[in-house]
């Protein structure tokens, strides 16, 4: 029987658990919006697109978050440019641009193996994160979460009905730009926690899970944030015992929670639907 | 984004009006959706916006809402530039059903509350006054009993009522209604018309886009006929004429003309003309429109 409290005895573990939980909460908040707009893949695209920025920043000794932001912004501009100049569909454009950026990042990392290794970018390295990087993650996440707590109702109004949002004096374009800025910030933070490949799970799964459990937006946010924070905290904790990549453990946990909701959700779950269908058939037979 | 309550007031001293002056809208692909469109509408008016699909009705709505910038001309709402009027919450918008994501996790009361956002502080926290106005709006459209439903669980007519309630809660002096009668039951159609008449007495200005030509004279004081430009605009009696409609819809509408022996046994040379955009038809007898009574849908077998 392993000592269940052992992880709490190590400073790096405690740091990893709390930082992960904060990142998980931030990403989960954003996931509610992304999923409703059908923009989930944007999270994936951003997660990959920031890689060259991170690599370059480490190479020349800048804060990784600054590099990530620049790369994310460039990727967004590139997508916009390709889209406006060609007849290609959005998914093709996203696919083109983010793989191009990711490849550039991989190339940079492999040419300069001293700065960081490929694995820590692809899989994250929250257990070995430096204090300086952890501080950046915490600041980025906290600011993002703070801004979201102020503007979430405006964002909801814009995502629900843009024309109406305009008519009550909101500026949909500005709010959408703000949203994508926050999303890139959260992506950068998540990169450190679960790695580029699993960022998408962080910005999709908690929202998708909550969506099966409620029809109210504030409740949706609460459930998603709780799921995001808890799975990240517990995931980091468990990774001490399984000795595996933290990202893998976190996302596996999130998937388990999703599957539970998928089957057992009181109204939108598989079992509830089956029960209703059977009840309807019995009713009709009478 | 942040607005104080005092800056908005309750539109005190502002009178509803809509001025579209020489508006031209060109899309990036080079098509001219609207050219030199002009009309004026005043307070206490229900105006019908009529034209074929693609005639520029939605472009006109977009120009009024400020979604597209006119390449020439100007839209003024209550005497203000369109964007300024929106900042003050003067324009309310009731969307087409197809534009709404019905699986969005919001309840009926949440949607109506969003109509009040412009009146709230920057954290959008509802005051007692806001909540009361939401209640009243729901009451007026007869949807109080459904306030805790998710919007996707409603029927077509109920969905329309919810968005009308949102416009009521917003207290917009100028209301844009995009196809409010499409896909609704007769009871809802009558309820919507009754509500619009009440709002007219309260001084609101409503611009209603519709394909339901037959009922336009029932409730519209004014008509705006669109085909790439504003062909004609003015009081229904003098604008909603056979000649103007044929100009607006020529070659597009189902158009039946019944005359001679098929209609009369005498020397009367007048004829019956039925124009329909596949909803309720409009019927002209001789030179005048015959009646405001609803008519049965014309069948295609007619000559």
Characteristic terms for this protein:
heterodimer; A: 286 residues; 80% helix; globular; B: 303 residues; alpha/beta; 10 helices; 14 strands; disordered N terminus; disordered C terminus
Helices and strands, with pairings:
The complex is a heterodimer of chains A (286) and B (303).
Chain A: H1 11-37, H2 40-49, H3 51-60, H4 64-85, H5 90-111, H6 118-123, H7 131-160, H8 162-167, H9 172-194, H10 199-202, H11 205-211, H12 217-242, H13 246-264, H14 270-285
Helix pairs in contact in A: 1-7, 1-9, 1-11, 1-12, 2-5, 3-4, 3-5, 4-5, 4-9, 7-9, 11-12, 11-13, 12-13
Chain B: H1 5-8, E1 18-26, E2 32-41, E3 45-50, H2 57-65, E4 72-77, E5 80-81, H3 82-87, E6 91-94, H4 108-114, H5 128-140, H6 156-170, E7 174-178, H7 186-201, E8 205-209, H8 216-219, E9 222-226, E10 230-235, H9 236-239, H10 242-249, E11 254-258, E12 272-276, E13 282-285, E14 288-289
Parallel strand pairs in B: 3-8, 3-9, 6-7, 7-8
Antiparallel strand pairs in B: 1-2, 1-4, 4-5, 9-10, 11-12, 12-13, 13-14
């Amino acid at each position: 029987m392993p000592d269940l409290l052992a992880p709490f005895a190590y400073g790096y573990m405690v740091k990893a658990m709390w930082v992960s939980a904060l990142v998980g909460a931030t990403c989960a908040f954003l996931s509610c919006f992304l999923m409703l707009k059908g923009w989930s893949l944007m999270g994936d695209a951003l997660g990959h697109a920031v890689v060259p920025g991170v690599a370059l920043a480490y190479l020349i000794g800048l804060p990784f978050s600054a590099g990530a932001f620049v790369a994310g912004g460039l990727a967004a501009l590139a997508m916009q440019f390709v889209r406006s100049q060609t007849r290609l569909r959005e998914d093709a454009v996203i696919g083109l641009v983010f793989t191009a950026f990711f490849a550039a990042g991989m190339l940079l990392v492999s040419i300069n193996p001293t700065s960081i290794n490929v694995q820590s970018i692809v899989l994250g390295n929250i257990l070995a994160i430096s204090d300086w990087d952890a501080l950046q993650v915490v600041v980025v996440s906290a600011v993002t979460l703070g801004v979201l707590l102020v503007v979430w109702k405006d964002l909801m109004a814009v995502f629900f009905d843009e024309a109406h949002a305009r008519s009550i004096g909101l500026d949909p374009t500005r709010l959408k730009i703000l949203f994508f800025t926050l999303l890139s910030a959260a992506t950068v933070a998540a990169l450190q926690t679960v790695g580029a490949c699993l960022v998408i799970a962080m910005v999709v799964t908690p929202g998708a899970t909550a969506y099966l459990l409620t029809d109210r937006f504030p409740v949706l946010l609460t459930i998603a944030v709780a799921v995001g924070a808890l799975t990240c905290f517990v995931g980091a904790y468990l990774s001490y015992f399984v000795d595996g990549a933290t990202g893998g453990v976190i996302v596996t946990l999130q998937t388990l929670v999703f599957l539970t909701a998928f089957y057992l959700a009181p109204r939108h779950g598989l079992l509830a639907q089956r029960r209703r269908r059977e009840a309807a058939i019995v009713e009709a037979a009478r | 984004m942040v607005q104080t309550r005092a800056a908005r007031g309750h539109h005190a001293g502002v009178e509803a009006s809509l001025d579209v002056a020489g508006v031209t809208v060109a899309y990036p692909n080079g098509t001219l959706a609207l050219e030199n469109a002009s009309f004026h509408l005043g307070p206490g008016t229900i105006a019908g916006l009529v034209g074929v699909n693609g005639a520029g009705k939605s472009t006109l709505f977009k120009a009024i809402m400020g979604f597209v910038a006119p390449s020439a001309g100007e839209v003024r709402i209550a005497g203000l530039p369109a964007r300024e009027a929106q900042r003050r919450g003067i324009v309310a918008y009731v969307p087409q059903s197809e534009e709404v994501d019905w699986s969005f996790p919001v309840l009926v009361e949440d949607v109506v509350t969003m109509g009040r956002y412009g009146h709230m502080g920057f954290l959008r926290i509802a005051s007692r006054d806001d909540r009361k106005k939401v209640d009243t709006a729901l009451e007026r459209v007869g949807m109080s009993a459904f306030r805790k439903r998710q919007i996707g669980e409603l029927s077509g007519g109920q969905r329309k009522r919810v968005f009308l309630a949102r416009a009521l809660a917003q207290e917009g002096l100028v209301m844009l209604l995009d196809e409010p009668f499409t896909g609704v039951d007769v009871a809802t159609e009558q309820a919507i018309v009754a509500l619009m008449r009440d709002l007219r007495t309260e001084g609101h200005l409503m611009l209603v886009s519709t394909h339901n030509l037959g009922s336009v004279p029932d409730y519209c004081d004014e008509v705006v006929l669109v085909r790439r430009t504003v062909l004609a605009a003015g009081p229904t009696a003098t604008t909603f004429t056979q000649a103007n409609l044929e100009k607006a819809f020529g070659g597009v509408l189902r158009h039946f003309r019944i005359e001679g022996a098929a209609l009369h046994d005498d020397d009367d040379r007048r004829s019956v003309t039925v124009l329909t955009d596949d909803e309720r038809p409009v019927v002209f007898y001789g030179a005048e429109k015959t009646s405001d009574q609803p008519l049965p849908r014309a069948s295609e077998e007619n000559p």
